[in-house]
Design goal:
Layout: H1 14-34, H2 37-40, E1 45-46, H3 47-54, H4 58-70, E2 74-77, E3 87-90, H5 92-97, H6 107-130, H7 143-151, H8 153-170, E4 181-185, H9 191-199, E5 204-209, H10 211-223, E6 230-234, E7 246-252, H11 261-271, E8 272-282, H12 289-304, H13 314-321, E9 325-333, E10 340-346
Parallel strand pairs: 4-5, 4-7, 5-6, 7-8
Antiparallel strand pairs: 1-3, 2-3, 8-10, 9-10
Helix pairs in contact: 3-4, 6-8, 7-8, 7-10, 8-9
């Protein structure tokens, strides 16, 4: 006789038990990246061979590979029915984003994010007690750190996610095919500007970022062979000139760092020619609680550093206040760490 246990689908505490389990999963993925497992498993291998090549304990290696399989980072199969051991291979997702030989490899960026978030967690109680920003984690800070982030972490994330999202947003705009002058504001390694220039051969323009990162953008533009079409300019968005007469401005995850969003948006509005368009991609706190949890988990450390995070609709309202018209809002744009909101606005034609 089969007995059915009539109970809720899960215990009310299960989401919070899952928080503890997620820590194990993060460490499994971290170790796999450190061991370059996804490179090794470009072809199917049994756990015993993986352990031998990496000088690991055979039994524990098999357990780790099973865990990675459960996380959809590995596929497994048996060579034939008589075979007792599973053969493991990197899943298509892992091969694309976590194999160090892939052009969209994002494993280093992921590991750096994990390290920074865990550092923040360790400092959280002190941060609450003292309120001192110096106790919060910093992915960047010094000139050398900003440059290193642009060269590695931000570049990997742009290749893995941001470039694709920006192209999807911008190339479908009616203004894009007619645009001849663009600005990538807060460009980092400038991979978005490079992709847009390749998508529209008539497009020229500038990339703007802090002096610490602009040298990385210059190198990437030179490698792409676009030095004649894309010019680099360094400075501080709130204080320095970043040009004018643009048909198109791309600005992503920049307004978190300005002291006055309206003031920054007025400056951006003035930099557009009449009829020009701004595409601004920025995280906002969603109204729905489950969606807000993901967003707030990532941005809690930045908020404690005094960075700005608007509530849902706040960016659109700010753009409307400073004169942008024909506004469009797109939610759930896939970006590194959390989805963002993209607000598209125009400077009215005169």
């Amino acid at each position: 006789m089969t007995l059915l246990f009539k109970a809720p689908v899960s215990h009310p505490l299960q989401p919070y038990w899952d928080l503890s389990l997620a820590s194990v999963q993060a460490d499994v993925m971290r170790v796999a990246l450190e061991l370059k497992l996804f490179n090794l498993l470009a072809e199917p291998l049994p756990a015993s061979v993986v352990a031998s090549r990496l000088h690991l304990h055979a039994g524990n290696t098999a357990y780790l590979l099973d865990m990675l399989w459960s996380m959809r980072l590995l596929e497994r199969q048996k060579a034939d029915e008589a075979e007792s051991d599973w053969h493991y291979r990197a899943s298509s997702l892992a091969a694309r984003y976590l194999d160090q030989d892939s052009p969209q490899h994002c494993g280093d960026a992921w590991s750096l994010r994990l390290h920074a978030l865990r550092h923040f967690g360790q400092q959280l109680r002190e941060q609450l007690r003292s309120g001192e920003a110096s106790t919060a984690p910093r992915l960047t800070g010094t000139a050398a750190n900003w440059q290193a982030a642009a060269r590695l972490q931000i570049a990997q994330e742009q290749r893995a996610a941001t470039v694709e999202a920006a192209l999807a947003l911008i190339t479908q705009l009616p203004e894009f095919s007619r645009a001849t002058r663009m600005l990538d504001l807060g460009a980092g390694p400038a991979l978005v500007a490079i992709a847009l220039a390749k998508a529209n051969p008539t497009l020229h323009g500038e990339v703007f970022d802090l002096p610490e990162t602009i040298s990385v953008a210059e190198q990437n533009i030179a490698v792409a062979g676009l030095g004649a079409r894309l010019r680099c300019r360094s400075g501080d968005l709130t204080r320095d000139d970043f040009g004018e007469g643009y048909d198109l401005i791309w600005c992503s995850s920049v307004l978190h760092f300005v002291p006055d969003i309206d003031q920054a948006l007025r400056k951006i509005h003035a930099a557009l020619r009449p009829g020009g368009v701004l595409v601004c991609a920025q995280a906002e706190i969603p109204e729905r609680r489950d969606a807000a949890r993901q967003m707030l988990s990532y941005y809690l450390s930045m908020r404690m550093l005094g960075r700005q995070l608007t509530h849902a609709g706040g960016l659109r309202q700010a753009m409307q206040r400073v004169g942008f018209s024909a506004l469009e809002t797109l939610h759930g744009v896939p970006f590194p760490m959390t989805p963002v909101t993209a607000v598209i606005g125009r400077r009215a034609s005169q």
